[in-house]
Amino acid sequence: MKRYAKKILRNEINPHIRYDGKKSGLIINPKDEDIPVEVIGFGIYQLDSNIIYHETGQNEMVLVPQQGEFEVKVNGKDFSMIREDLFSEDPEKSTASALYIPCRSEIRIHGRGEIAFFEAPAFEERSPFFLPNQEVRVISRGQWIWRRGVATFITPQNASSNLVVGETYNPPGFWSGTPIHKHDKNQPSLGESDHEEIYFFRFRKKRAPDDLFGPYGVQILMDENGLRNAYLIGDKSIFAIPGGCHPVVASPVSELIYLWGLAGRGSRLMMRDMDEFVFLKYFEEIFMKLEEGREKSLISQEKFKKLCSIYPFTEDQKRLLKAMLKEKGFEIVLS
Q1: Residue 285's CB: how many other CB atoms inside 10 A?
Q2: Other C-beta atoms within 10 Å of 106: how many?
Q3: Alpha carbon of 242 to those of 4, 26, 239: distances in Å?
Q4: CB atoms within 10 A of CB 68
Q5: Cα–Cα distance between 89 and 314 in angstroms, integer?
């Protein structure tokens, strides 16, 4: 992160790419000095009954269809992948599938549509692994306006040696990457690893011909050394994250899905929550306690104090909690 933060601040490097949907192949190349990552790469293959051949070399790959039908041959073994719609009618389910391809592999991809991929140096040679849609699980994380659905596809626990790949579903107006965390220093004793990350954003609402702006969201990138940048993202935005904190918010006009991939230099992925924002996890516990007795929307001052008593809240945090509870339909009364 230190290598890129000042260059990003001076606009010498832009971590945000607006993909036009035309280029086929590697889009974020970690060997490119104008790209603020050094380990992980990202690309998209556009197919129209053509065939793509590729050799992974020292890298491992993960393929995730965005839309279309594909036949993939890895070292002579066949895999079929299909995705009719990026968004599921049920936000608690995913339409995705994923294919892990190890290093020193030969690949043949045939089909129609758009298929995204991540690549990164492999630490060891593994076997191909296919995660079909029926086995993808969406886990609800966070609470209230930072609740999102997370589906993790490929990790070193089930397939890869380095890459970690999945998708996050953001409801309209909701945040993810919250409470704010980071993973840009190799300090396992503090619960943090050094992993780069790339996001590929997709919005459910399509831009109409007469739209001036279209669907949008905001990607934030900030660190402890003064980087404080916000980027207006649109459909098919790609964002390279060398480090720092990187929360995302979807605007109220559309649902948002972003495909994400991480890779590091050898350590296990560990995300460290920023101490300044850990109190939001305590808020989550209080929200869940209150939802259990949702028929009671009135909260006495005494009950509110009791709810807060086991947490190290500041007075500002208590006021913030009251404001959130009011927006959730709870009222704190004097008696």
Answers
A1: 13
A2: 13
A3: 7, 18, 10
A4: 18
A5: 41
Q: How many CA atoms lie within 13 A of 325 on its CB side?
A: 29
- What single letter denotes the amino acid at residue 121? P
Summarised one tens digit per residue, pLDDT across range 163-177 is 999 999 999 999 999
Q: Between the CA atoms of 274, 277, 280 and 282, what dihedral angle is there, to the nearest 10 degrees?
A: 70
Instruction: Collect all residues with Cβ–Cβ distance below 8 Å to 267 and sequence separation of at least 6.
Output: 186, 188, 193, 194
> Residue 2's CB: how many other CB atoms inside 10 A?
11
Distance CA 325, CA 169 (A): 24
DSSP letters spanning 185-203: EEEGGGTEEEEEEEEEEEE
Helix (H, G, I), strand (E, B) or coil at 5: helix
DSSP 103: S
* Cα radius of gyration (the chain): 21
How far lies 227's CA from each of 28, 154, 223, 285, in Å? Answer: 22, 31, 5, 31
Segment 92-139, tens digit of pLDDT: 999 999 999 999 999 999 999 999 999 999 999 999 999 999 999 999
Calpha distance 49→106 (Å, rounded): 19
Q: Angle at Cα 45 formed by Cα 86 and Cα 183, nearest 5°?
A: 70
The pairing of beta strand 331-333 with beta strand 298-300: parallel
